[in-house]
Recover the amino acids of this structure.
């Protein structure tokens, strides 16, 4: 891992942590789904009473995720980029990232055909191209 990647991950961690309440939560996660020209994101945290609350972090978090993806792809043995990044954090500040490289992101809004084409030009994955969901009518 490069210092630049570490810094981007730290920016994400700090931005998500700052978006959370000062107290009363037990765990939080932030999910970022991406292809080259399309992304979505959502966060949630669990309160001590078990309720889940949704949130979205500041733009610096999504900017850092968008910058992180190509930098990590450049280091990947096959040049593959991840499609889904999940960040989890606890109130004591411990955090971790999980990255999914081999499953297309489960977007709620399906990106256009040209956005998928751009993704596969940038990060060729012929084995995944036939899994692109169709555009809704």
């Amino acid at each position: 891992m490069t210092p630049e990647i570490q810094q981007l991950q730290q920016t994400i961690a700090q931005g998500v942590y700052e978006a959370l309440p000062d107290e009363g939560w037990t765990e939080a996660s932030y999910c970022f789904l991406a292809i080259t020209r399309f992304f979505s994101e959502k966060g949630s945290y669990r309160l001590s009473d078990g309720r889940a609350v949704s949130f979205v972090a500041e733009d610096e978090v999504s900017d850092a995720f968008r910058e992180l993806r190509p930098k990590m792809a450049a280091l990947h043995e096959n040049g593959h980029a991840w499609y889904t990044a999940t960040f989890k954090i606890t109130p004591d500040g411990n955090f971790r990232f999980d990255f999914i490289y081999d499953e297309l992101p489960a977007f709620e809004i399906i990106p256009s055909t040209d956005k998928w084409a751009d993704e596969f030009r940038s990060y060729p994955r012929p084995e995944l191209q036939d899994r692109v969901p169709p555009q809704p009518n």
In short: The chain is about 35% helix and 25% strand. The longest helix spans residues 3-19. Residues 110 and 133 are 7 Å apart (CA to CA). The chain has one domain: 3-129.
